[in-house]
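Suppose a classmate hands you a notebook page containing two proteins, each written out with its sequence and a corresponding row of structure tokens. How would you begin to make sense of it? This section walks through that situation. The first entry is reproduced here exactly as it would appear on such a page.
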Amino acid sequence: MNRKISRREAALGAGAAGLALGLGLPALGQAETRVHYVPSSGEALAPVGLGTSRVFNSVSGAAQRSALVEVLEALFGGGALVDTSPMYGDAETHLGELLPQAAGHESMFCATKVWTEGRAAGARQMQESMDKIGVERIDLMQVHNLLDWETHLETMLEMQAAGSIRYLGITTSRAGQFAEFERVMRAADWDFVQLNYSLGEREAEERLLPLAAERGMAVMVNRPFVRGGLFRAARGKELPRVAAELGCDSPAQLFLKWILGHPAATCVIPATTKVKHMADNLGAAAGPLPNARQRKEIAAWI
């Protein structure tokens, strides 16, 4: 399918401020903060972001709201990307309510999704997402789990041409959808693909990650801890020798660096409600990433 405007034109339409994203990120105290780049534009992007599934969907009470504001502020101190979806209950609404309270929120790279069927319903939902989050432009709009993707792609291209969307993507979070996901990756020039990949779910490295590299698509990784499964597997174990080589002082940093060490991985979006965990996750953006030998050692440890 021919695109109405080039991906580079769309991505760079926001001006030089977008390209500066990540280039001036503060150090995290361990080493120089790493940035990755969106292949379709060359825009810099911090490799550790924040997912909102099961985190922002149900928010009640001042204490919980304050904790999530602190999480956002920690993110914006060393990252920028927040990923959400209409599928996550009231996550978009709560994100929009809390963002103005978070210092540094102006730097947010906003990623959300369309998750419905039909052209009119899709267009309406995408506009509602912008209204709920409180932004005039979505940095990345993704078709959630490929639902009615061909219909939504046409609308997304029109919105991209109008300047209300910068990048286009598709998502999945289960290996059972990978065959169809591969077909859709080949069917259009997506800027981003979002998929599950971790030490506990390695299927994406067989075909999808190489294909993303071949087609110049950024890869956003979800489920990096397999919903806590990796932490349970590591419980009681001392960190391996390779952790010191990589400047890691927690299992979370090892798990995230293992993902980011894959040449196709652009960013990862762990979800958390605790500021200490957000700060720990951001530590994976500092210092070296593992080479092939080190990734094998991490995999053998877990």
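The notebook's second entry, a different protein, reads as follows.
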Amino acid sequence: MTQTVKIKNVHVVNANDTKMNQEVYVEQGKIVEIASTINKEAALEIDGQGNYLFPGFIDMHIHGSAGVDTMDATPETLHEMAKSLPKEGVTGFLATTMTQKPESIEKALKNIAEFENNEDEAEVLGVHVEGPFISPKRVGAQPEEYVILPTVERFNKWQQLSGGKIKEITMAPEVEGGFEFVKELAQQGIIVSIGHSDASYEEVEKAMQLGAKQATHLYNQMRPFHHRDPGVVGGTLMIDEIKTEIIVDFIHSHPKAVEFAYRIKGASNIILITDAMRAKGVPFGDYDLGGQMVHVTEKGAHLPNGALAGSILTMDVALKNMQQATGCSFEELVAMSSTNAANQMNLDTKGRVEVGADADLVILNKDFTIQKTIKKGKVIFG
């Protein structure tokens, strides 16, 4: 990874500013210089053609893509998934598990522990464990028969099996043992995300005070807002310390509900995710999700009972939809598509285009069409 790269004729966009007509110089996978003119030759020169240079997108919540799923628990399927994501601008993601019998989750965690990315793939930045420590009242597409109560002992075993790669867990703090679990995991540096939860506003607030700092797919499978019972939705929107994921496919949330969240939380507290399942990027039809049949059409992915079962959203479309719903700036889109996620995971060399950062980059035009995706200085799409 010693190749030098020079990207010319791009507008460099970060969460806090845009620098027009810049050149970016990369050595050994890192950004070493950004200036209006760089008088150095490079082994690879890329003409950005007046397009925008964003940090590579980070998807903190994705189950599958290209016909495969994290729960398949084989190296081949994880490679397949990682290889399918650069075309939508993704350079890093959290492979996301779901509520299943513990042995199945453990198999997926062991697979990720031993996994080594190839150069031409989006990077597996860790694991997001979604369930099984959730509320039976808010299971959504998570199979209820595998919902169990949280214990720190079980989590510690799982973290060991994953090789320390669990970065985030979605759980319901109000279940028995939930608050102790939140406190212990937050102290371990895990992102505790409130989701699939029937908590009251007060319980959400208590979880935040104990260290929860995120909410999973806002509005979906959480106690809804009512003016006498603000619930998880109210807590997520009102408590500044909680950042929230949102699936902006206009199926999981109405465009006005997306705009509502943006107006209240602001771009610095929103994380765009896909929550995609294996049917992303493959033809419509019937697919498996955690042992359940999912019917996928242009209207989304649904279980036979009509419940939404993840999405087939891509990150580039998520950005486009977010901009359409809110009129937000490109800087705000950078915050929501990479910087906030990187900050939550304490990845200070990701989610930004600056000297010293990893050269995880995406060149896109004003219509959000991906021109090139670059990971650690290597072009992996386009």
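A careful reader of the second entry would note: The chain has a mean pLDDT of 97.
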